[in-house]
Amino acid sequence: VPVSRAKEIPYKGTMNAPASEPLVLATRDNHVLKLTLNRANARNALSTGLMGALQFALDDAAKEHDVRVIVLAANGPAFSSGHDLKEMTAQRSQADKGRAAFAGVFAQCSKLMQTIVRHPKPVIAQVQGIATAAGCQLVASCDLAVASEAAKFATPGVYIGLFCSTPMVALSRNVSRKHAMEMLLTGDMISAETAHRFGLVNRIARPDALEADTMKLAQQIAAKPRATVKIGKEAFYNQLEMGLSHAYDYASKVMTENMLHAEANEGISAFVEKRDPKWPE
User: What distance in Å separates the CA atoms of residue 54 and residue 62, rounded to the nearest whole number?
Assistant: First the structure.
């Protein structure tokens, strides 16, 4: 794999995706894979096709040994406006008034969000514009998020009679209950600065420095020992679901296994010997 691969690889999805429309573009820079949502004209609404393409790309990346960090970005003025409501509304003409189709969309979206959380590689959202409803959910599902000063966030379902119940799952696991409820009940747009204060994003960047700042963070993480990062990410999310005592028992077992790994042996030896570690590839 070349050090920097500028060639874009289109992921076209599996459902209703025109052959001429690559829904997700992939580029590589060293060990960082950048996946870019590419429905700019539709404000990167999460159609079944786009979700399918992103799912495929993430599943593909999980098997790529040389990929250590994933950056999730988007083309156009919006990061993602949420579910494709035009696509969903068209299903109301079905005999069941769209029930099966709606259930399928939300199941597909839930699987996608859980794939990000359970992914063996850290995923960083690079947010250049608005991220609303399921688009905000997508940001909240990522491990880290860097937002442009121009980015804005909202869970505006209450404005259209559709409470953002599935975005609520990711949102409430990232920000305090009061902040989550404020966003869900008002539906109001919040600024990048407020999102940072709430804990929804990690860092804010000037619009012209967003990509560089995000890639700098990604490369910093990519330089860390691969297996250690994988072990740590998995343990982080697992212990969040446990009670305090159970979490400590679990984390102690994880650290014991981690201590026996070659990376810990090399890292600790290098620390004791006052030298730089040489991580196994």
Answer: 12
